[in-house]
Design a protein that fits this description.
This protein is mostly beta strands. It has one domain: OB fold (Dihydrolipoamide Acetyltransferase, E2P) (Beta Barrel), CATH 2.40.50. Helix content is 7%, strand content 42%. The chain has a 5-stranded antiparallel sheet with strand order 3-2-1-4-10, with no helix packed on it. A 5-stranded antiparallel sheet has the order 5-9-6-7-8, with no helix packed on it. The radius of gyration is 15 Å and the shape is globular.
């Protein structure tokens, strides 16, 4: 049930296994979707509940809900270098690192994975969960529209 309805808190998210965590801030809504800004860029997630504008949140994304792209998909996508590849027979666990974070993707495609290669990781808006997080401060790395991101989380 936790895997389909989402965790109720950070402890549960970490308890059920590897979970990618992205700190973000609510910057708007569009119908059933919430628009979030983070040090990794802009994300659109399906709304599980109403969240106040400018509130700090944490996005949880399971590694098996991620897609590896080398052709620059734009939505819910961020780039970095592959730092580790672990072949598991029917799948591959890929670790992607950027200036701001480490992100793990478990992909069913066992195609060649090359450490040091630039890669984009993406996920669908419905394949993640968000929780409010009063301990997050992403304002220091988020600049107004058109500005530069200057600091890591």
């Amino acid at each position: 049930m936790i895997y389909t309805t989402g965790p109720k808190n950070r402890f549960v998210a970490n308890f059920v296994g590897i979970t990618n965590i992205i700190k973000a801030r609510v910057t708007g809504t569009n119908g059933d979707f919430i628009i979030l800004e983070s040090c990794e860029g802009r994300f659109i997630v399906q709304s599980q509940k109403k969240l106040p504008y400018d509130s700090d949140v944490v996005i949880f994304v399971r590694p098996e809900n991620c897609v590896l792209k080398k052709d620059g998909v734009k939505m819910n996508t961020f780039t970095g270098k592959i730092t580790n590849c672990e072949y598991l027979g029917d799948s591959t666990v890929v670790e992607r690192r950027s200036k701001n974070s480490i992100f793990t993707a478990k992909i069913s495609d066992t195609a060649k994975c090359t450490v040091g290669e630039d890669v984009s990781v993406s996920f669908l808006p419905e394949d993640c969960w968000i929780l409010e997080d009063t301990n997050t401060n992403v304002k220091k790395c988020i600049q107004p529209v058109g500005g530069e991101r200057s600091e890591a989380l």
